[in-house]
Amino acid sequence: MTTAPTGIPAGIEHPHNRIRVGYARVSTRAQDHQAQLDALTGAHCREVVVETASTRGDRPKLRATLARLQPGDTLVIYKPDRVARSMKELLIFVEDQLHARGIVLEILTGVCAGVHRPDGATIADRLLFAELERELIRERTLDGLRAAAAAGRRGGRPVAVTADQLDIARARLSRGESVTAIAAHLGVGRSTLYRALDLAADAPNGQTRTETDTH
User: Fold this and answer.
1) Parallel/antiparallel/unpaired status of strands 2-3 and 104-107
2) CA 201 to CA 181: how far, in whole Å?
3) CA distance 44 to 15
4) Range of the domain at 195
């Protein structure tokens, strides 16, 4: 099944005669069909190719789509697992089947979200930056615990979600990421992050409250 959104200005649809093609992969078990289609249509794709499969091994429509893309064209996907089963497979797919032919990849959600051009930063770079961000969060949390211990503030529960983590969570929420994905990225439970966001929203005078502030 292939759908083509209408009413998109020609300059947005295919600037400089380059095209943007969305690829959505759905299964009989998945329930995110409409979310994918809405996101791809909103990304100004000239057309959206929808592939239905019960397994991830065979993607004939993806192969056919790649075969007709030209240098400078863009393949748009909702998230990486639409085209790959692992990060290693994703890196090989991007480098060998897209960037080697001058094709741009745009990912709409997740850690790798963004436009990946053949002459730009690689997805491997993006993953490295994400890992560094998580490491910095862990280090800041440990520094805070050490400072509290040095000041004699021992005992009680550690802060479940730090102020830095809340700032990152708010920024990612504003970009449309789900709380589930953000919680996984920060290494905290989804319910914990929900509570922390609710507490921060209720804090007076714009102050940030952490979960332990209520105890």
Assistant:
1) unpaired
2) 20
3) 11
4) 125-214
What pLDDT digit, counting tens, does each position of 43-75 carry?
A: 999 999 999 875 556 789 999 999 999 999 999
Maximum separation of any 2 CA atoms in the chain, in Å: 66
Catalytic residue set: 27
From CA 172, how far away is CA 133, in angstroms rounded? 13
In this structure, the answer to whether residues 136 and 113 fall within a common structural domain is no
What is the DSSP annotation of 93-147?
IIIIIIGGGT-EEEE-SSTT-EEE-TTS--HHHHHHHHHHHHHHHHHHHHHHHHH
3-class DSSP state of 75: strand
Determine contact, residues 162/210, Cβ cutoff 8 Å: yes
Question: pTM above the 0.90 mark?
Answer: no
